[in-house]
Amino acid sequence: MEAFSCPVFLLAVMMMPPATSLEDLARFPTLGQASRAMEFNMAYKEWLDLQYHMRSHHADWFGQAIKETSQLWWIWDCLRYAHSECHPTDSRLYWLEELRQRIGEEDYAAGIMPPPVPMHRFQLVR
């Protein structure tokens, strides 16, 4: 079993296409912006979790909102890891490629990130 002691993400890095470059990060929000987006996401998710338990008659709606919010968190987390200079280059490239797969080629090429929370869940109050 020694042959499988290498972490899965390192195996993925070795199989990653060479097109990804750390220069791609210049098109995306900064590490600070990604961190703030994730803070907002976590605060919203905490509120959703509370509502999910308090409003059981709307559990389906809140459950779906929690799922969407978690998916967005992972996208922003990919960007945060890619920006983190404390990680080795191979690891950062892995997270950039993961980001590309999660947001799609078009948005990746344009540096377009989704909102940190599912904005369609917010209601306009007049």
What does this entry look like structurally?
This protein has five helices and no strands. By secondary structure, it is mainly alpha-helical. Helix 1 packs across helix 4 (89-103), helix 2 (31-54) runs antiparallel to helix 3 and helix 3 packs antiparallel against helix 4. The model has no long low-confidence stretch (mean pLDDT 88).
Outline the secondary-structure elements:
Blueprint: H1 8-14, H2 31-54, H3 59-83, H4 89-103, H5 105-110
Helix pairs in contact: 1-4, 2-3, 3-4
- Strand-and-helix sequence, N→C? HHHHH
- Please mark out the parts with pLDDT under 50 across 5 or more consecutive residues, or reply none: none
Kindly report the oligomeric state of this protein.
single chain
- Percentage of residues in helical conformation: 55-70%
**Number of E-type strands:** 0
- Mean pLDDT equals 88
Query: In angstroms, what separates the terminal alpha carbons?
Result: 62 Å
Radius of gyration: 17 Å
Tell me the β content: under 5%
- Per DSSP, the total helix count is 5
**Class computed from helices, strands and strand pairing:** mainly alpha
Give the overall form. Answer: elongated
Main sheet specs: none
